[in-house]
């Protein structure tokens, strides 16, 4: 649509230039013609004279000359003056009239020539017809495109007309296609997942999982917005409540964990749930009510998916109204666990061993990941392994609307987001990397700007949209980093990589790290591909 408008605007500009040139030419001709007409009047250049006396004297003189030359007085006598005088007089009058018009006609021609020269000198330069912007062809087969056709009826609920094509697709995942949309609602998250399920029948159960996650996120958004009004700020139980990481729990930490855990449990699709606020993974009981089996034949899935999440990332900032968020990752229940029996404690139950085997998987095993950001608006961004799409909550209809399709992070940005108070505690490659970004001594040859919220979801969201680098590296106080691998670093790295970026510890790709425990911490730096490649090269030097 943008290319079409650009083409149309340049066409109109070209028409305006041609139109103005035509008027300039007509004006030049008109000026020359008017000058010729006005200058043709005798009173303009000549004084009025008596035409009869002048004619008589000229005729008499000419007759005398003719008689003297030819010497035929008889013939002169035979020519009646009444007849000869008018004929010669009319001839001479015609000659005089031609002579009278020659000067003004010449002046008019000169003025017309001058007008043409002035027009050619002052006319606007020809504007070449603009070449429309190249439209990315819609890829078919395994790289089927996401086509969006929506209107702009409501700026809060609709998306501009666009064509989006994901470049890299995971084999077996087909992106949804939208040939028609509602101008009033746009493409909702509910419809998006319905189309995903239609295009990928094996992902039908994932549709109900996302329906529950978005319901939980809407609830948490409401809780965060009203936390100060409803008295949900401050520490849990007045202080003293500590999670397994040794962090004091906020009231909202406990409440939001319960909201999301129950929402996932109620899907009937979860086998295991692991949370930042839980000491260990929890097995979900998917037993159905006995009444279901009496009249209706129901096939029980047994919990196909495993969910890991941080219910309220950045909760230490929530009392100050700073953006916070929810991070989640989804695995499938399978037999690819590489944990041997020696990995587990001897007194560990078989059920707990099964939970850990289902949960302790590297990021490469994720089938979905995403986050919700609770800020000036509530955003929901996720990936199914086939690109990254962002939705915004329209509170008037209670639906997430697709507003950021096919998010791509540029190879190099201009913002770095990191806690620079720890600069002196970083290792040498990290210090050199950040110094290079700050001073412009990097491959991009430009100085970066520092922006740091202190909430991972907020900082990563900005990095996804604007480009740049986000990091929480290891330091002398946190030798293993501070962010949790399973439910923070891995899901966010999955998103960044699907958007075209990279994520690393500096030495190892985050997605390749197998967790040793549920709450394992890792160093993390993520961003544009060029920026992360530069950091890796510094560590390898």
Quick gist of this model?
This protein has 541 residues and is α+β, with helices and mostly antiparallel strands. The protein has helices spanning 2-39, 42-45, 51-70, 73-78, 81-122, 189-199, 204-225, 251-265, 292-295, 350-359, 428-439, 456-466, 485-498, 529-540, and strands at 146-148, 162-164, 270-275, 282-283, 305-313, 324-332, 368-374, 378-383, 388-394, 399-404, 415-417, 449-450, 469-472, 483-484, 502-504, 521-522, 524-527.
Describe the structure.
The chain is of the alpha+beta class. Among the domains are: 181-288 and 301-406, Fructose-1,6-Bisphosphatase, subunit A, domain 1 (Fructose-1,6-Bisphosphatase, Chain A, domain 1); 415-539, D-Maltodextrin-Binding Protein, domain 2 (3-Layer(aba) Sandwich), CATH 3.40.190.80. The protein contains 14 helices and 17 strands. It has helices at 2-39, 42-45, 51-70, 73-78, 81-122, 189-199, 204-225, 251-265, 292-295, 350-359, 428-439, 456-466, 485-498, 529-540; strands at 146-148, 162-164, 270-275, 282-283, 305-313, 324-332, 368-374, 378-383, 388-394, 399-404, 415-417, 449-450, 469-472, 483-484, 502-504, 521-522, 524-527. The strands form four sheets. An eight-stranded mixed β-sheet has the order 4-3-5-6-7-8-9-10, sandwiched between helices. Strands 12-11-13-17-15 form a five-stranded mixed β-sheet, with helices on both faces. Strands 1-2 form a two-stranded antiparallel ribbon. A hairpin with a 4-residue loop joins β9 and β10 (399-404). Mean pLDDT is 76; it is low at 1-14, 40-84 and 127-171.
């Amino acid at each position: 649509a943008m290319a079409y408008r650009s083409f149309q605007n340049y066409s109109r500009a070209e028409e305006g230039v041609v139109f103005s040139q035509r008027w300039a030419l007509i004006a030049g001709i008109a000026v020359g013609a008017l000058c010729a007409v006005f200058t043709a009047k005798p009173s303009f250049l000549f004084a009025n004279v008596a035409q009869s006396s002048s004619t008589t004297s000229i005729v008499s003189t000419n007759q005398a000359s003719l008689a003297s030359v030819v010497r035929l007085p008889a013939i002169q006598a035979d020519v009646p003056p009444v007849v000869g005088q008018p004929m010669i007089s009319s001839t001479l009058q015609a000659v005089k009239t031609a002579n009278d018009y020659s000067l003004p006609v010449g002046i008019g021609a000169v003025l017309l020539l001058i007008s043409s020269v002035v027009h050619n000198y002052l006319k606007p330069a020809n504007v070449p017809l603009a070449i429309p912007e190249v439209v990315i062809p819609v890829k078919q087969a395994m790289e089927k495109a996401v086509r969006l056709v929506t209107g702009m009826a409501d700026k809060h609920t609709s998306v501009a007309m666009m064509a989006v094509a994901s470049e890299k697709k995971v084999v077996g995942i087909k992106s949804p296609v939208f040939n028609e949309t509602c101008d009033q609602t746009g493409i909702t998250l509910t419809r998006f997942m319905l189309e995903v399920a239609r295009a990928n029948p094996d992902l039908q159960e994932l549709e109900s999982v996302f329906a529950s996650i978005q319901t939980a996120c809407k609830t948490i958004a409401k809780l965060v917005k009203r936390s100060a009004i409803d008295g949900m700020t401050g520490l849990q139980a007045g202080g003293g409540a500590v999670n397994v990481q040794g962090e004091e729990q906020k009231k909202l930490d406990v409440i939001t964990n319960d909201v999301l855990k129950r929402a996932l449990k109620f899907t009937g699709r979860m086998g295991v749930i692991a949370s930042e606020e839980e000491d260990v993974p929890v097995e979900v009981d998917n037993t159905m009510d006995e009444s279901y089996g009496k009249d209706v034949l129901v096939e029980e899935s047994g919990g196909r998916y495993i969910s890991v999440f941080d219910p309220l990332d950045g909760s230490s900032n929530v009392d100050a109204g700073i953006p916070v968020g929810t991070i989640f990752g989804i695995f499938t229940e399978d037999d690819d666990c590489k944990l041997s029996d020696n990995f587990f404690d001897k007194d560990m139950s078989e059920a707990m061993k099964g939970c850990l085997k289902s949960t302790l998987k590297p990021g490469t095993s994720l089938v979905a990941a995403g986050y919700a950001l609770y800020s000036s608006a509530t955003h929901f961004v996720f990936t199914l392994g086939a690109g990254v799409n962002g939705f915004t909550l329209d509170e008037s209809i209670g639906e997430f609307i697709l507003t950021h399709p096919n998010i791509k992070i540029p190879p190099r940005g201009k913002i770095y987001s990191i806690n620079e108070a720890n600069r002196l505690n970083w290792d040498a490659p990290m210090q050199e990397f950040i110094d290079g970004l700050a001073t412009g001594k990097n491959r991009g040859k430009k100085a970066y700007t520092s922006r740091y919220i202190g909430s991972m979801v907020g900082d990563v969201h900005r990095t996804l949209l604007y480009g740049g680098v986000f990091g929480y590296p290891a330091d002398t106080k946190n030798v293993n980093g501070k962010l949790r691998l399973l439910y923070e670093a891995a899901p966010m790295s999955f998103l960044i990589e699907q958007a075209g970026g990279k994520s690393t510890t500096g030495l190892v790709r985050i997605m390749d790290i197998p967790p040793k425990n549920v709450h394992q911490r890792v160093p993390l730096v993520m961003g544009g591909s060029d920026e992360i490649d530069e950091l890796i090269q510094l560590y390898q030097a």
